[in-house]
Write a structure and sequence with these properties.
Helix content: 25-40%
Shape: globular
Strand order of the largest sheet: 5-4-1-9-10-11
Structural class: alpha/beta
Bound molecules: nicotinamide-adenine-dinucleotide
Largest sheet: 6 strands, parallel
Oligomer: single chain
Distance between the termini: 6 Å
């Protein structure tokens, strides 16, 4: 089968998980769940008050694991897109998320990069080893690799730290001919610059958001992700 695209890259942000019950980050006033980002999402914040930072991510983890929080149709349609492309075409596909929740993988996505890390993982500050975590993380937690307390931190990329897998992401952006950004405010770099890089290398660029973010894309589809994403996926797949 032939696809209209050789390579598709999709970027998602907090907006895709809003309808699953996970609040977005309010970049405009610098608050995330009523906390200043400097306090809870920077290395300096962790150094100044590790107890507060652990409490913050513990609460985010508990919220994510609440039985009412489930992937919505935007997550499941992106998983369907990946599987259909894989079985019916030669189109390459990459899903990049800024989200630290696990709703994409729960919906069935496999070719997924968590560029800002994952809430259900913790990392040893001594060795860099990464472990799963579903319970609360505290300063008393003894690390499995270094056997010390206090060395484990959330495996989350904080402001001022370098996002994960940037080489792989940049290669994909330069090679793609379709790029869509879904539910992201365009305030957090480097993700906010991905559309420009993809466009410079010739991709069609599309923004899906509730409202205008002021970012420059070829097309804008306004509305809830649970409605705009299924429509976009159908549009791509109908041409297979
Ligand atoms: P953001 O919170 O800055 O922006 C969210 C965007 O989504 C806004 O532009 C908003 O208009 C749009 N939006 C809200 N509801 C929507 C809906 N139903 N359908 C479509 N669009 C909708 O998000 P960001 O750009 O991803 O930056 C936030 C940072 O904070 C990220 O780095 C992320 O790691 C972190 N964060 C993650 C989560 C999560 O994992 N779910 C939640 C909050 C914050």
């Amino acid at each position: 089968m032939t696809s209209p695209y050789k390579s598709i890259v999709i970027l998602t942000g907090a907006g895709i998980s809003a309808e699953s019950g996970i609040p977005t980050f309010r970049a405009a006033d610098g608050l995330w769940e009523n906390h200043a980002i400097e306090e809870v999402a920077t290395p300096e914040g962790f150094q100044n008050n590790p107890v507060l930072v652990h409490q913050f991510y513990n609460q985010r983890r508990r919220d994510l694991l609440h039985p009412d929080v489930k992937p919505n149709s935007a997550h499941s349609e992106l998983a369907r897109l990946e599987h259909q492309l894989e079985s019916l075409s030669n189109t390459r596909f990459m899903l990049i998320t800024q989200n630290i929740d696990n709703l994409h993988e729960r919906a069935g996505s496999r070719k997924l990069i968590h560029m800002h890390g994952e809430l259900l993982k913790m990392r040893c500050r001594e060795t860099g080893l990464i472990f799963d975590i579903r319970q609360d993380l505290t300063l008393d937690h003894i690390c499995r690799c270094c056997r010390q307390p206090g060395n484990l931190r959330p495996h989350v990329v904080w402001f001022g730290e370098i996002p994960l897998a940037m080489n792989q992401i940049e290669q994909a952006l330069m090679a793609c001919d379709f790029f869509a950004a879904i539910g992201t405010s365009g305030n957090v770099y480097p993700a906010a610059g991905f559309n420009q890089l993809a466009k410079r290398y010739g991709a069609r660029t599309v923004e899906l958001n509730l409202e205008s973010t002021g970012s420059s894309f070829d097309e804008h589809h306004y509305g809830k992700a649970s409605e705009t994403v299924p429509a976009l996926v159908n549009e791509i797949l109908k041409n297979l």
